[in-house]
Amino acid sequence: MREALFVKQNNAKWESYEKIKTTHPDELAARFIEITDDLAYAKTFYPKSKTTAYLNGLAARLHQSLYINKKEKASRFLSFWKTELPIIFFQYRNQLAYSAVFFLLFTFIGAFSAANDETFVRLVLGDDYVNMTNTNIEKGDPFGVYKQSNPLLMFLMIALNNIRVSCMAFLLGILCAVGTVVLLMYNGIMLGSFQYYFFTKGLGFESVLVIWIHGTLEISAIVLAGAAGLILGNSLLFPKTYSRLTSLKRGAKDGLKIIVGLIPIFIIAALLESFVTRHTAMPFWLSSAILIASFLFIVWYVVIYPRKLSKLI
């Protein structure tokens, strides 16, 4: 059957499932079975078409609805991180990729600018921070800034600030995603110039082992928050078959779920920065193990696991 005929025969049913809401478990289950049958057919005959992508998204939403309408609150809580959030990561994998590319590009620009302008690091990081770090380097404790504050107070300040930044990255997406890109630019340029600064001091490798103990989770979460903002902006700019308001509501809902899902990651990153990073003389194997474990977790949970999960629904 040609794809156009397949769409024509089923389009009314698909649209009705999107427009007519129901919370009845039997009806949701029946709809889910029908959509997955259509999705299986589309994957077989039109594997790379927009129809297949559309049905995959519709099946994911129906699957989420089945979990949402379960009575067990504990199950609902666990299913959010086990199923719902990973499916959103897969559904919006393009926005995740764009956010990562934007951030890496701006990080490179920050490092390149610092390499070609001696005053750039001070412009971005501020004279006070640079002077303090230079003093710490002279004292033989280049990362002493992580030891100066009370760890509990430091944890609260860092966690709240990172959550605030992630919320801003999401909310600025309403400005047609431009605001989110600007925030990614600011943070990327700051990271690039910051990291380049330590390399010029001969502390590049050491800075990676110390700073990225917490930075792996923290920076990854900021990129994911940027993706949430791009989802919001994209829903406003490109509503597809939905009305612009309906599309915006869907984008806002899915983007907000990502922000909520990032809160535990920001808390763990703040704990690491406040209570672990301050031990700058820890063994190489320990710091590298924390760094690698954090990186592998992000890759698995955001990329590998969602892709495997999408094949099961």
UniProtKB/TrEMBL annotation:
The keyword Nucleotidyltransferase does not apply. InterPro entries: SpoIIM-like. Keywords: Membrane, Transmembrane, Transmembrane helix. The chain crosses the membrane at residues 96-115, 163-184, 219-238, 258-276, 282-304. This is Stage II sporulation protein M. The lineage of its organism: Bacteria, Pseudomonadati, Bacteroidota, Sphingobacteriia, Sphingobacteriales.
